[in-house]
Amino acid sequence: MKPFDYSRADDAGSAVAAVMARPDAAFLAGGTNLVDHMKLGVAAPELLVDVTGLPLDRVEELPDGGLRLGATVRNSDLAAHPLVRRRLPVLSQALLAGASGQLRNAATTAGNLLQRTRCGYFQDVTTPCNKREPGSGCAAIGGWNRYHAVLGASEHCVAVHPSDMAVALRVLDAVVVVLGEDGERRVPVGEFHRLPGETPEADTVLRHGELVTAVEVPPLPAGTRSGYRKVRDRASYAFALVSVAAAVETDGDRVREARIAFGGLAHKPWRAERAEEALRGAPATDEAFREAAEAELRAARPLPGNGFKIPMTRNTLAALLRELTTEDRR
Q1: Contact by Cβ (8 Å): 72, 57
Q2: Is residue 317 classed as helix, strand or coil in its secondary structure?
Q3: 1: pLDDT strictly greater than 90
Q4: E strand or H helix at 169, and its extent?
Q5: Each residue of 203-220: pLDDT tens digit?
Q6: Alpha-carbon gap, residue 44 to 213, rounded angstroms
Q7: 35, 50, 194, 274: which could join 31 in a potential S-S bond, CB 3.0 to 4.6 Å?
Q8: Phi, psi dihedrals of residue 223, rounded to the nearest 5°
Q9: Which of the 8 DSSP states describes residue 234?
Q10: CA trace torsion 37, 43, 44, 46 (10° rounding)
Q11: Element (H, E) at 259
């Protein structure tokens, strides 16, 4: 790890100003991703601005019944919060599916959103990686790509976003609140992360020096059931091969409305809009659930090592929707 300067921010405005003033600066909160990358040589900021002392560590109820999640709320605290567990089970379940208990005690809301891919080539500085070093190539395309993207990839990058929490937030239509030199702006979570295109080094739409201060989550409609299901190589501390977040409303034995997002398949949490459209008004049956998955996955372009993700996604979506709609009819 290279030497770096360290400062502790007194308020959000001074934190933004400090990072804006130096192109080699970065914010530090839980550090569960950034510090690892500094040790590996993937990241080498020369100034870390610590924001853990800022008053951004609360979960607050909004007037419409939604929730405002502070940027430095720890993942374990957020998963266990009574309002989150009661109103947004998909979010609580997704958080508990991520990392380990020790890491959830350190990781933060904003840090979870901003974590970078766990692609082995990205984390190995001896290999080509367009995300780490633009123009160097993508070793994963012709290499080991079991964990990599089947949707939304490009010839420049096939990495996937690792967050479980972000998949749940995509289903919940959350909004990311960002503070920059020009004041506050609000970014729908679906627009916050980017697909790789020709610039895979840019994970999000954040500008240098912008600080995530909160995530706002609108309330789910009454009667909606939500949940998260993750398939991985081992039961703990493993990133998703495939994950599915869903929020479903039923009318008798039919689906009135559905929101679906996939994790482990793309460079960003993937909102399954074709699957949602196929489910509206459809019977709440395994056949309909699988047909909806097929509608979304026709656009998939698997690599030699990850074709299994197609049937795995179909089966995982069907299993989660079966669980949610069966509960609704009891």
Answers
A1: yes
A2: helix
A3: no
A4: helix 165-171
A5: 999 999 999 999 999 999
A6: 24
A7: 35
A8: 90, -5
A9: S
A10: -100
A11: strand 254-263
